[in-house]
Write a structure and sequence with these properties.
Structural class: mainly alpha
Largest sheet: none
Helix content: over 70%
Distance between the termini: 24 Å
Number of helices: 10
Radius of gyration: 18 Å
Strand content: under 5%
Shape: globular
Order of helices and strands: HHHHHHHHHH
Number of strands: 0
Number of domains: 1
C-alpha cells in the first residue's frame, strides 16, 4: 500500500524536484565559505518544508475521509482540477515573462545574500522556499490529497508523505551529499550547472507547468463522479 500510494504522488514529487531556483540557491551555498554548514541546513529546511505541507494536506484530507465519502472525494477532485488550471495559467505567465532574444535572465536579489547567511537563516530559507513557494505549495497539497484518496491511513499515509518529501528533495539533497563526500572537486561542475539553470529557468518552468497542469487536470476529471 505504501509504495502504490507513493506512486500516485510521483509526478508531484518530480515537479517539486525540478525547481531551478532552489537548486541554484543550494549550489550558491555549496560554493561559499560555509558550504559544509549552510548547505545541509538549507537541505534539511527544504525537506522538512515539503514533508510538512504534504503531511498537513494528507491529515486534513484523511480526516475528511476522501477514500470512502463520495462528497469528500468529489471535493478532492475539484482541488486537483483547480490546481491543474492554476499550473496551466502559470505556464502561460512563464511564457509571456520569458527573456527575449539577447536579453539576460534577471537574477533574484536573494542570491547575493547567500554568502553572508548563518546556518540558522539557511535552514529557515530552505523551509520557506519549500513551504511558501507558489509552485511547490499546490504540488505538495495535491500530493497529500492523493495519498488520502488512495486510502492510506495512519502510519502508511505518513510514510508515503515522507517518501514523497524525500523524493521531491533529491535535487537539493544530492548536491549537498556530493560536496560533503567529494569536497572541492564538485565546485566546477556545480558552477557550470548553476549557469545552465539560470539561463534556462523560464523554459524549464514553462514545460513543467504544462505537464503538471495536464496531469492534475486529467486526474481530477477522472476521479469526478
Amino acid at each position: 500500500m505504501i509504495w502504490s500510494t507513493f506512486g500516485q504522488t510521483l509526478p508531484q514529487a518530480v515537479g517539486i524536484a525540478i525547481s531551478p531556483i532552489p537548486m541554484v540557491l543550494v549550489i550558491l551555498m555549496l560554493v561559499s565559505a560555509r558550504a559544509r554548514t549552510n548547505g545541509p541546513a538549507f537541505a534539511l529546511g527544504w525537506t522538512v518544508g515539503v514533508v510538512g505541507v504534504a503531511g498537513l494536506a494528507y491529515a486534513f484530507s484523511n480526516g475528511a475521509d476522501m477514500a470512502t465519502d463520495a462528497d469528500a472525494a468529489d471535493a478532492g477532485s475539484v482541488v486537483q482540477v483547480v490546481l491543474g488550471l492554476l499550473f496551466l495559467f502559470l505556464a502561460v505567465r512563464q511564457w509571456r515573462g520569458r527573456p527575449q532574444p539577447g536579453q539576460e535572465a534577471t537574477t533574484p536579489k536573494l542570491f547575493g545574500a547567500v554568502d553572508t547567511m548563518s546556518a540558522l537563516k539557511s535552514l529557515g530559507l530552505g523551509f520557506a522556499a519549500a513551504a511558501a513557494n507558489p509552485k511547490n505549495l499546490p504540488l505538495a497539497i495535491s500530493a497529500g490529497v492523493s495519498i488520502a484518496q488512495a486510502g492510506a491511513t495512519g502510519g502508511q499515509g505518513v510514510a508515503a508523505a515522507v517518501l514523497f518529501g524525500i523524493t521531491a528533495s533529491l535535487t537539493v539533497l544530492v548536491p549537498v551529499i556530493a560536496v560533503l563526500v567529494l569536497g572541492d572537486r564538485t565546485r566546477e561542475p556545480l558552477d557550470a550547472f548553476k549557469v545552465w539553470l539560470l539561463g534556462n529557468n523560464s523554459a524549464i518552468m514553462m514545460v513543467l507547468f504544462i505537464v503538471l497542469g495536464a496531469k492534475m487536470l486529467g486526474s481530477g476529471l477522472a476521479l469526478t463522479n
